Amino acid sequence: MSSAIVNRQTFDEVMVPNYSPAAFIPVSGKGSRLWDQDGNEYIDFASGIAVTSLGHLHPELTRVLHEQVDRLWHLSNTFTNEPALRLARRLTESTFAERVFFSNSGAEANEAALKLARRYAFDHFGAEKTKIVSCKQSFHGRTLFTVSVGGQPKYTEGFAPLPGDLDHIEFNNLAAAEAAIDGNTCAVIVEPVQGEGGVLPASPEYLKKLRELCDKHGALLIFDEVQIGVGRSGSLFAYMGYGVTPDILTSAKALGNGFPVGAMLTTKKIAASFVVGTHGSTYGGNPLACVVADKVIELVNTPEVLDGVKRRHDLIVDGLARINETQRVFRDVRGAGLLIGAELTGELAGKSKDFVNVGAKHGLVILVAGPNVVRFAPSLVIPEDDLQEGLKRFEAVVAEVLAAQSV
Ligand code: PLP
């Protein structure tokens, strides 16, 4: 029955239709290149969605995974395991955090963070302090709690009743934060750089203000670094570059470079509210995932990789500026490190997906961040030749999209 031949059409025949994947199916990758079923080659400026930050098939990651595959795949939470402990030790030694909880995804890391914030407030302030403040256009995952906290109503449509006592405020607006955060607030959650919402960096003043307001009102400040964390901003975590320390930080995506793993980082005092039995996950802290993530952090947290992010950022931003000089397509290029968003001019509004589709024809994988923003999230270690070749291909993509526009 299950034929060996599968193709894009098979998706429509056997998969739930909640995604609309590309017409081609990548089957192998190496570094910043991908190859599809027909042998076509692509430059990868997407890294999944900011996941394979050390490129595909990084030899060190492959090695540690193979070693662990031959040793032990799974225990349960009735045991702890060495890779999880080593990774937690490394994360606590390299960040503000003193305690770590492992999950399998970003949504689950955020779910844990939000539950912990509610529980901490309950333990320390009583049952009334339940309000969670988040930002419009934010994205925190697809579980019912995280999608409700997220600031994009299109993602909650039809899923009511939703969890309650959530307040969505305008991102980067200090007065709105001041008005919303009060004595009933148990947590404020924010992406230091909004990813899905259009690649919008928070201003340093905004994050400082959120920190101040949380301190004033006894609320916990949660940084969702699922997309921008693990080196993508040019710091190991973006909070380090901003100089504003959260109470809880969530990580996933690049943490496993493609092996599913998420983490919630916090302090000893806050972690104490998750007593035995309050929260859990069958796979969270899985040895295979943790052995990879431990190596990822070791490899990313070096001056070579982090400085390289800044250098590559400049190369891309300069390259886009050059393209924009001759073919005016962007009204704004912004972001941090290697999460870069190029917002289309008014004439091209709503057309970001066209760039992705035409990109595939030119052997280039790029992303959108909403209908008006083309998003670039290449590997942090993309060779500069691949980067220049990708920019060259992108220039051809721009020309083709504009040509189609004018007919
Ligand atoms: N938080 C942010 C900032 C994200 O960008 C994402 C995914 O795009 C998530 C959370 C959800 O992560 P996951 O898809 O691993 O559940």
Automatic annotation (TrEMBL):
PROSITE patterns: AA_TRANSFER_CLASS_3. Its cofactor is pyridoxal 5'-phosphate. N(2)-acetyl-L-ornithine binds at residues 142, 281. It catalyses: N(2)-acetyl-L-ornithine + 2-oxoglutarate = N-acetyl-L-glutamate 5-semialdehyde + L-glutamate. Its EC number is 2.6.1.11. One of its GO terms (cellular component) is cytoplasm. Pathway: Amine and polyamine biosynthesis; ectoine biosynthesis; L-ectoine from L-aspartate 4-semialdehyde: step 1/3; Amino-acid biosynthesis; L-arginine biosynthesis; N(2)-acetyl-L-ornithine from L-glutamate: step 4/4. Its main location: cytoplasm. GO terms for molecular function: diaminobutyrate-2-oxoglutarate transaminase activity; identical protein binding; N2-acetyl-L-ornithine:2-oxoglutarate 5-aminotransferase activity; pyridoxal phosphate binding. It is an enzyme of class 2 (transferase). The modification N6-(pyridoxal phosphate)lysine is found at residue 253. The keyword Amino-acid biosynthesis applies. Binds 1 pyridoxal phosphate per subunit. GO terms for biological process: L-arginine biosynthetic process. Belongs to the class-III pyridoxal-phosphate-dependent aminotransferase family. ArgD subfamily. May also have succinyldiaminopimelate aminotransferase activity, thus carrying out the corresponding step in lysine biosynthesis. This is Acetylornithine aminotransferase.
